[in-house]
Prior knowledge:
Bound molecules: guanosine-5'-diphosphate, manganese (II) ion
Helix content: 25-40%
Distance between the termini: 39 Å
Amino acid sequence: MNLHEYQAKELLREHQLPVPEGAIARSPGEASQCAERLGYPVVVKAQVLTGGRGKAGGVRLAGSAEEAERIAADILGMDIRGHTVRCVLVERAAAISRELYLGVVLDRAARWPTVMGCSRGGIDIEQVAAEDPTAIRYEPVHPLIGLQAYQARRLALDLGLTGAQLRSFTDIASRLYRVYESLDATLVEVNPLAVLQDGTLVALDAKINLDDSALFRHPELAALRDTSAETTAEQAARSAGLSYVSLEGSIGCLVNGAGLAMATMDVIKLFGGEPANFLDIGGGAQADKVGQAMRLLLADGGVRCVLINVFGGITRCDEVARGILAALESIRTEVPFVVRLEGTNAEQGRAMLVAARMQTAQTLAEAAQLAVAAARTAATADAARSPA
Ligand code: GDP
Ligand code: MN
């Protein structure tokens, strides 16, 4: 789960990290009132759950109430990479002399958190990472002992900081690491961490990603979820207890178990297809859950074929087959299905599907090939119908 910048900054503030003074506005009038309270210049910032707002024109300075109002009117309602801006953060603008990058991220390959720093922070950090990867410094952190002071100092020196700025940076890095740890985050990022003209360091931007699997330990954080930023499919999936990620391809996947879902996507790609989604219906899935998952998949207009791949352990394949057939009675779709059932009661399940004239497969490879072919045929038929 991702947090908005203003939410992330509130959490940083609670951990005594330096963040600019500011407030949220949901209308141009509110933005100008906030600006009046803060004093000029202010910065007006789009609050959307995506980066690159600066480059998209979603971060702008204003020198008066009128200007703040006009800029807020421009930014509110703006679309930034598919995200509609519903509120802006108005802050007292900082006088920046340098922009640094500081982040804590879970390094899944190393299975350790890593603190990352770069002396060239700001909106071009991706470019810096691509062109000059050595400019980014890493300090892997042992999860049991946490970030050590010498590591934070080494990073500060690598970033060219000395004296009071070095001390301030090490303090900020260790507090940021504590934020990462105490919130069960997978990413806590400050970009830019600005060195102001008076020499002080301030977190001008903040990004926090939380580990969904740990949210049960943080009900107060779970309440920060911005459901207005989720697609209807994501909301429906979450309330049905399905783990669902929408993708670009044409083959809808309905699978039990995250590992099997990943493998299914891989095999589809191996045979030249593109999965339309990742969908894990979980273990012991009952017929009604299968139905909900099917509705979710078929609501995606890009789906040309649905591949159901279920391994029955706790889940019984006959129960899954019953779910599929029951759902198809009420859904009524032209989209072809390919079903592969294996494990507990697979024979019974398959027999039920075959009796209902559904396409079944024995192996995953066979199922994927059938699905890729069916999706292709459907796409060709579509293209023939609409010559444009
Ligand atoms: P992002 O583009 O989504 O990462 O948004 P940021 O919050 O990082 O803002 C982008 C850029 O706007 C920063 O790198 C700064 O250069 C600039 N910026 C942000 N806040 C201020 C501010 O208070 N004063 C000034 N002068 N520039 C700012
Ligand atoms: Mn930023």
